[in-house]
Each structure stands twice: as structure tokens, then as C-alpha cells.
Amino acid sequence: MPDPDSSRAKAASTWPLLWETLRAQRRNLLIGTLIGLAWSVGKIASPLLIRYGIDRGIDEGEWLWLWVALIAIAGMVAGFFTALRRFFAFREARWTEARLRERLFSHIMSLHIGYHDRAQTGQLMSRSSSDLNQIQMFVVMIPITLSNLAMVTAVTVILLVTDWVLALLALASLPLIQVAGRRFSRSIHPAVLAVQAEQAELATVVEESVGGVRVIKGFGAEAVQAEKLRTEADDIRRESIEAARIRAKFLPAMELLPQVGLIAVLWFGGNQVIDGDMTLGTLVLFNVFVALLVFPLRMIGMTLAFAQRAAVALGRVNEVLDISSQVQDPERPESLPTVEGSDPNRGLGAVSFREVSFAYPADVRPAEPDNDAGPVLDGFDLVLRPGESVAIVGATGSGKSTVARLLVRFYDADSGSISIDGVDVRSLTLHDLRRAVGIVFEDTLLFHDTVRANIAFADPDADQERVERAARLAGAHDFVMGLPDAYDTMLGERGFSLSGGQRQRIAIARAILADPRILVLDDATSAVDPSKEHEIRSAMSTVMDGRTTIVIAHRPGTIALADTVVLLDGGRVVARGPHADLLVDEPRYRDVLAAMDADADAEADEAGGRTDLGSPVGGD
Amino acid sequence: MFRMGGVTDEDKLDSETTKRVLRRAVRMAKPFRRTIAAALGFVLVSTLGLLMGPIIVKFAIDNGIDDGDRDVLRNAVIVYVVVVAIAYAASRQQYIFVNRAGEGFLRALRVRTFDHIQKQSLGFFDRYQSGVLISRMTADVESMAELVQWGLLQFVAALFLIVIALILMLTLSWQLTIAALLVMPIIIIASRKFQRDSNQAYLEVRERVGQNLSELQEGIAGVRVVQAYAQEGEQTRQFVSSNRSLYRSHVHSIRVSTWYFGLVEALGVIASGLAIGIGGWLVNRGDVTIGTVIAFVLLLAQLFEPVQQLSQLYNTVQSSAAALDKLFGILDTEPDIEGGDQALPDRGALVVDDVGFTYPATTTPVLRDVSITVADGERLALVGPTGAGKSTVAKLMARLYDPTVGTISFGGVDLRDATLDSLRHRVVVVPQEGFLFGGSIADNVRIARSEATDDDLRRALDAIGALERFETFEDGIHTEVRERGSRLSAGERQLVSLARAALVDPAVLVLDEATSSLDPGTEVIVERALDRLMVGRTTVVVAHRLSTIQNADRIAVIDAGQLAELGTHDELVDLGGRYAALADAWAQSLPT
């Protein structure tokens, strides 16, 4: 599903995104603000009533219990609207967050793979979690701050009308709270970041100590690491105490500033009461009102700081949303030829690469040690007849996997053309193209879902029969039936953990169910129990039968599955023929095979007693 | 660092466990008791200061304003100013001292946990996923930081405030106190219910956040599969449904807190109303002064906020206790490899006697009945098919694990009886890949012997012929290697790794031969370094290359966890067994 936003013009600034999001919720935000106004009426009413209670009820002995009843009612009103205001504000903020997150996710899913090869998962994760949380925190403040402002204004007016001199004295110190609040947020933020930076440094020491535990144990270097950790732990403590110093500088001041107003009220107001110019109730009213204003004023200061942080977060979110996918559907898509009959793929699946050249963008360098910046493919030619199978063999970094990436348009070739059944891949919709090509990836990523859902990934509506058929063909049915909940067993990182070979068979079943006319098998390099290797090989050969197949071979055993072998070197095909012929004629071919042997051996041995999850970023 | 997987059972502590964990934490905080005592003192003073306000106002009203005595009023104002100043000073100190104690505690916890983890054997590291260990040391400790920085202070301050306010109220008038506190039972019941519900809602939100995050991570990590199968729409649909359930749990938790906050707010005002009503009646009877009633109204305004704070803090306390409990789980794991008290001799034969080995938490033995004697100065190659147990034999020889059955000894001393220090000096393992730590090249070599001088390091590097290469770097051997040594090539990392071994100058070298090909230039240098390193030492090589095998004095073929063949190259070829077949295959497939 291409994201509708992907072609959107770059936003001039970050605010339009927020505005757009909020506009959809304007009704509830408005209701929230109105509720906030009702809340401020309730809040203001109770101190006023308390004044009458003291002056009329107690001092003059009139209608005491009426005032008490009114105070109680005002309390209930204030309580009711406090709750309602809170509910609306927080709910709307969470809704903003949820919708932005969905938009981000759908956008991320649609972005070209070139972007994903460059981007770090952690970065994208923090865009969609902590950044959205910052935005959420700001949205909460919108209705709350608006009603707080209303209340602050109303109280100020009431106090000014009651006694403007006393009002000025009482309120003089309060703007300072707001100023202090803003300055506090501004200076605590870098301090908190500094603490986090130190925490990250400590995490690095822990990570390398856990990762390099064999070296540390081997040399008895525990003390060296312990010393490093102490340094980092000390740094965290130092920065944290520094942050505490900032809190110590501002928070007590913010708490005690209103007391200055209260002292002024007591002194000046007290004298006025003695002079008979003011009632005791009014004195109390000033007291209560000053206390009432403290929190809203502090919040206004915080809101400004929150807004700044939210703006930064929005900017980062927008950065992602503004990227449009570089691989797009054509404007006038063509469709692939089809045939009638029981086997819709019969006689189809011709593939041709003509004069294809490709270099990864400078900042995408799929991790390979000796990979210089030149083109990966350079005048690459390869033609496959329908039903033919070819193994692509080459040294690490020779561009084997790139062939598959270009075929499904994870990247577009820089020059040359790639076509399926005579149709250029760029003239097909991405959906049609990718349904026509099935890839079994090098790292067999399984999703946290049931076995059934993992196999029926390409077609979630597939019935049990189809799922089972695919599993049988892939040689997975038998072990699946042995799992605790058979096809309903949960897999993935948090689910039942399968062996490397089992995972691979599930991945093959996934490709079978998609029933593509072209199959790409990117052979796993990670360890497979040697005794299970032949089972996987037989599963692969079942799927390949009669289907156009490209095998990206990382181990000698898999090469044998293909009809012909293509040797890739320097970005082009340097030899093509049956395995046995190449072995005799091509010294380079023998080199590559020897290297594979050693690699496979090392991988399997290193795997020791652990299960390796493999990295999501592909190999060469 | 993201926390994955949401809430597990270990996050849901019952109150019994919470109490036990907290008691243990209190014991651990003993070294900081002076700082804590000082912090408590400051909290007490600043809380008292905050509550003195209403009392001073009462005094001023009753003795100054009501009597028209301006001197009393002035004195009251002066006292008020002094009290506020003292409270301010104490309040500043309370932040500093509470943090000093808290951060000191966290530092001690970090250091202690890390030291404890480092004492563990490799078996421990196999058992715990590295991600789990890292999150214990980072996310779990940090989740306590919130409690330390904010929570503890708020908790103590709120508690003091409530207690002191109640005492002040009782001294002013017990009748009014009862009147004002008529609403208390409702608040207590509501608070308990809120605490329970909000804790549940909080755990639910955390669980959903965890699920949402892993779903997000899975989507991003799996984007290649998703796009390859054109399932972007379906994935987004599934994500939206998980995201909506997160939203719903957020809304639920908002609802839980919403009514509670409203209720406490309403009851606070109603309590003031009651104080005025009953206060008015008492004033008329002459039992209390009007100043007392006003002091009550002002005190009540301050009483209800801490009550709310206390109920909210419960979640923080509980999740910190859960994190602590997990840390204690690690601290309670006894290290299973500990040094003995015998020093190993300088030289001797390395004897593997009837050894069997099963990886922890598995049942199938990886090795059975392996016996090999490696003579002093001998060069032994371990060969065999993938996964046969070659590397395991090598690890046992360096006591990275202890054999499940049988013994391994050096110079007649069982490795289990040897001091760890002498063991690490006699037997050194050079892993396949050069693993680098943060810091300079020199720091990385010094890992092997922390007291080594720069000259020692240079000598070690020179011994393997690598000094010249590193001296040409910008800062020579003090050049920073950057994250995971990304500054250096694979071959250079390997050289650093070999230099560590040279620095130790061990009697026995255990090598896991590198298999991934290096660039031709460094390949030769690394090979030469290895040759120089092996001179005059007993060497055990997990071999992948024919040339290495051919240079060995003897070859041990390990197959399916057993020693299948042992002998010289010629002997084994003559034997016509597995090694012969292997050598034959090699000769055929390898370019000559």
C-alpha cells in the first residue's frame, strides 16, 4: 500500500504537521477548553464563598450553613470539571500520538529499502516513541493551559477590583514563578541530556564487557573493565548531582516565591483590617487565591518549555514523513502476461538483466570489510528461460545479493534494464512485481505470530489446506506438528525458538504459498545443523521444480541445486556453465568455493550452544 | 535502549516481595546513613517551614489584627520572613542531600552488579542473553533513578507534611480537626482503590507499550520481507490494531486517575466548608478563635496534595522494587568458576584426561571421553567437521569452562586448583576475531596486563612485527580505535589481539584460526605475527587451513564429540581414515 503522504510536498516548517493533526481533533479540543472554563469558574467560586463564609457566616453569624452548602457545591463542581478536563486533555493527547504513530509506521513501511539500509532501527524507533511522547505531552497542555490562563486572568481581575494595591503586592512575585519555571525547564533539559549521555557511556562499557567476555576472561582483564565502569558510574553520579543542583536552585524558589506574596498580604492587608478598610474574609481570600495561582503559573512556564521540545520532536518526525519513497509505482503500469489453466505460472517467469550497472549510494555501504566505493554491478547480463535455475556464485562483496535486490526493485539499477516476461520491472506496479517474485531471505526473519500466519504471510486469508500444503512441500509440516500448538505456535523473538534449519523451512514455505513465477533463494550463511542440511536442500529442490529460480549461493551444497552456475566477479558474469565444468576450467571458481568452505565451518562452530538471530541488514 | 517484551511476571511483585526487596535495599543503603539522616533533617525543616505559614497568619490575626496591635503584626511578619528564608535554605539542601545519597546508592549498585557479573564464568554468559544482562545494568538501574531523584524526596516530604499538619491541627483544636477530617474515610478508601486500579492500569499500559515497541521494531527490521511480499497494507493494519489497543489502555488509565483526582479535589473544598461551618459554631460558643478557623482553611489547602502524591508514588516504588528484584536475582547467582590456590609451574605438558562436556542448560554432551596429552612446546592442530566440538576442546583447555567429567591439567596441576592469575598467565586464548574495546590501541593491548608500561606494549607489538605499522598512525599506539575498532582493518584488529598474547608471554597458546579472508596485504603480516608468536610455546590450533595443519607436530581429529584420530600428518594419511579423506578432498578442491 503506497502511502498517500509519500508524494506530499516538503512542509515549510514543523507546525503545519501539528496543525493538521490537531484540526482533525478540534471539536474535542474545544470541548476540553470549554470544560476547562467551567473548571476555572468552580475553582474561583470556592475561595469567594469561603470569604463570605468567614465574613457573613462566622463574623456576622448570618446564614452560616448556607455558605457551607454553597462551598460544598462549588467544591463538587470544581472536582467534577477537574476530572472532566483532565480526561479530555489526556485522551486527546494520546489520540494525537496514536494517529501520528500510525501514520509514521505506514510511511516507514512504504519507504524504499535504500532508506532502510541507511537508517538505524533505533532512530526510527525513537521517532515513533519518545519523540511522539514529547508531542503528546505538549498536546495535553493545550486545553489545560488555555483554561489556566483564563483562571489566572479572572483571579487577577477579581483581586484588582477588590483591592488593587493589595492585589499588586500579592501578585508581584507571581510572574517570577512563571519566569523561573521557564528557566528551570531550559536549564534542566541539557543537564538531563548530560546524564543520559553518561548513562549511554556506561551502557557501552557494559556492552563491550558482555560482548568481549571471552577476551576479558582469557586475559583475566576483569579489573580493567571494572575500573572503566567505576569511571562511568562516577560520571553519572557527578552529572546527576549537577542536575540536582539545578533543581535545588529553582524548585525551592518556585515553591517559596508565593510566600513572599502571602507575607505582603499579611502585612499590608493586616494593617488595612486594623484600619477597618478590609474584612478578615478578604484577607483569607487573597491568601487562598495566591495559593491557587501558584500551580497554573508554574504550568504556563512548563508549557513553553514543552512547546520548544515538542517543536524539536515534531521536526524529527517530519523529517521522516517528508522523505518520499524513491521507488514508486509507474504512472501507467503494465501488467504481466498470464496463461489460462490449472498452473498459472506454466511457461512463464523469463528473467533478463541487460547491461545492468549499479553502485550503492555513498552512505549505504552494506557492511563488508573490503568494499570500495566502485559499482557493485557493472555491465551485468543474465538471461533465464522460464523454469530455468541458476546459482550465482562469487566472492564476498561481489554483488550476488544485489542482483536479487534489483530484481524486486529494492533499488533501481543506475543503467541497463531488467525485465520479467518481457516487461520492464519499472513498468509494473510494485505489488504485481513483488507478487511475481518470491524471495527466501538470507536471514530468515520470522514475525512474532503463529506458524500459520508466518507461512500465510503473502496471503493472510489462505486456508489451512494451502498452508499445510506449502509446509509439506518445504519439509516443515512434520516438525510443525511436533510443536506445542502445531500451526498455532507463536514464533519470533518472544515466541517458540526454532533452529536455524527449521526457520529456513518456514521461510521457504512462506515463499511457496506466495506461488511466485520467479523464486530467489538467498542461501543462509548462518549455522544450520549439518545433519539437517540435506532436508533443507531437498525442500529447496521441491520448490524449484519447474520454476524460474535464482540461487544466491553461500555454501557449496546449494550450488548443486541449480541447472547452471554463474560466476560473478568485478560486477559482471565472468563464467557460466555446469558446476563440474567450472571447477575444472576456472581457478577463480575454485578460490571462491574454498573460501565458502572455511566460512561455513567457522560459522557453525562458533554457534556453540547459542541460537544466533542473524542481523536484519543483508550481506553483500 | 528500548525495553522490549512488555511486562513479564517478574514485573508484577506482590506486596510481600516488594517489602522484602525494599528491606534488602535499606540494608544496602547503610553506608549512606549519615547523608540520609542529613537529608531527612533538611526535609523536616523545610516541611515545617512550609506549614508554619498558616500558624503565623493565625497568630497575627488573633493577637495582632483582632486586637489592633500593629507591633504584634509587624513581629509576625518578621518571623514569617525568617521562617521562609530558613525553609528556602533547607529546601535547597534537601535536594542536594537526597540526591547525594540516592546517586551514591545507585553507583554502588552499578559497581557491585557489574563486578558480580564479571566474576561469573562463560557458562553464565551463555545462559543469560547479552541483551538481558545489559538491560539489568542500564534500564533496570535507571528505572530506579526516578525514584531516587524525585520519588524518595516527594514520598518523605509528603509523609512529613501530612503528619506535621495533623499534629498542628490537633494542637489548634481537636474538635475542628475531627470536623475537617470527616471526609478522611472516603479519601482513604478512594486512595486504596485508586492505588490498586492505577497500578493495574499502569502495568497494562507498560505491557502494551512493550508490545507496541516490539511490533514497531519487528516491522522496521522486517521491512524487506514485508515489501518483498507486498504486505505493507496488512502490516500497517496489524500495527494499527496493536496501536489502538495501546491507546485504549492509555484511556483506561486516564479514566482511573480522573475520577480520583476529581474526588480528592471536591473533598478538599468540602473539608474547608466543614471547617468553616463547625468552626463558625465553635467561634460562636467561644471555643476557638476566628484565626484558628482561618489557619485550618489554609492548612487544609496544603494537606490534600500530598495525599494525592502518595497514591501516585506507589507505582514508582513498585516498579523500582521490581527492577531491584531482578538485580538481586543476578547478585544471588554464585560464580561457578573460582580460582584454586596453587600456582601453575612455568612449563609443562597440557593433559586432557577422559574429558566430557555438556553445555549448561542442555542435555546432549558436546564432548565425550576425550584424552589428549600435549607435550611442552608441541604444536597440535584440532580438525574435524563443523560443530564436532573442536572449539569446545580449546575453550576447556583454557578453563573458560570446566569439564563436566574428567580433568584437564597443566604441569601436573588440575586447572581447577590453579589460581586464576597464574592460569591466565600460562594459558592464553586468541579468539578468531580481534575484539576491540573502546580506547586506544595501547589500551587494547594493555587489557592483557594492566600494569604494563608503554615500553612493554611496544616490545610486545615489536615481538610480533606489528609495531612499525601502528607507529605510522597519527597518534602512534595511542590512536583511538573508535567504536568496536572501526578505525582499524580486520587484519589490524587481529594484530592487536595477537599483541595481547605476546604481552602476557604465556607457555600455552590456544588459537582459534581466523577463517574469514583478510586483505592480502595484512594477511601475510598476520600470518607472520602468528608464526613469531608460536615460537617456543605449546600451541593448540583450531585449524581451518591446510597449511596450518601441515605445520603442526600432531593432528587431532574430533568428530561427533569424540577424539577420532590422533597422530602426525603422515601417520594419519597412512591410516586411511577420516583425516585421509579430508586431506584428499582438500587437495582436490583447493588451488595448488
Describe this structure in words.
The complex is a heterodimer of chains A (620) and B (592). With 620 residues, chain A is α/β, with parallel strands linked by helices. Helix content of chain A is 62%, strand content 9%. Chain A is built from 20 helices and 10 strands. In chain A, the strands form 2 sheets. Chain A has a 6-stranded mixed sheet with strand order 6-7-8-3-9-10, with helices on both faces. In chain A, helix 7 (174-211) packs antiparallel against helix 9 and helix 14 (464-473) packs across helix 16 (500-514). Chain A starts with 14 loop residues before the first helix and ends in a 14-residue tail after the last helix. The relative contact order of chain A is 0.09. In chain B, 65% of the residues lie in helices and 9% in strands. In chain B, a hairpin with a 2-residue loop joins strand 9 and strand 10.
What's the CATH class of the largest domain in chain A, please? Alpha Beta
Structural class of chain B: alpha/beta
**Biggest sheet layout of chain B:** 6 strands, mixed
CATH fold label of the domain at 350-589 in chain B: Rossmann fold
Which two chains touch over the largest interface? A-B, 161 and 165 residues
The CATH H-level homologous superfamily of the largest domain in chain A: P-loop containing nucleotide triphosphate hydrolases
Q: What's the CATH C level of the domain at 350-589 in chain B?
A: Alpha Beta
Q: Given the C-alpha coordinates, what overall shape of chain B results?
A: elongated
Helix content of chain A: 55-70%
Number of strands of chain B: 10
Mean of the pLDDT scores of chain B?
83
Condensed summary:
With 620 residues, chain A is α/β, with parallel strands linked by helices.
Describe the secondary-structure layout.
The complex is a heterodimer of chains A (620) and B (592).
Chain A: H1 15-23, H2 26-59, H3 64-110, H4 113-118, H5 121-162, H6 164-171, H7 174-211, H8 213-219, H9 222-275, H10 280-322, E1 351-358, E2 377-384, E3 389-394, H11 400-407, E4 415-420, E5 423-424, H12 430-436, E6 437-440, H13 451-455, H14 464-473, H15 477-481, H16 500-514, E7 518-522, H17 530-544, E8 548-552, H18 556-559, E9 564-569, E10 572-577, H19 579-585, H20 587-606
Parallel strand pairs in A: 3-8, 3-9, 6-7, 7-8
Antiparallel strand pairs in A: 1-2, 1-4, 4-5, 9-10
Chain B: H1 15-28, H2 33-65, H3 70-119, H4 122-127, H5 130-172, H6 174-180, H7 184-221, H8 223-228, H9 232-285, H10 290-331, E1 350-357, E2 367-374, E3 379-383, H11 390-397, E4 405-410, E5 413-414, H12 420-426, E6 427-430, H13 441-446, H14 454-463, H15 467-471, H16 490-504, E7 508-512, H17 520-534, E8 538-542, H18 546-551, E9 554-559, E10 562-567, H19 569-575, H20 578-589
Parallel strand pairs in B: 3-8, 3-9, 6-7, 7-8
Antiparallel strand pairs in B: 1-2, 1-4, 4-5, 9-10
Helix pairs in contact in B: 1-10, 2-3, 2-5, 2-10, 3-5, 5-6, 5-10, 6-9, 7-9, 7-10, 9-10, 14-16, 16-17, 19-20
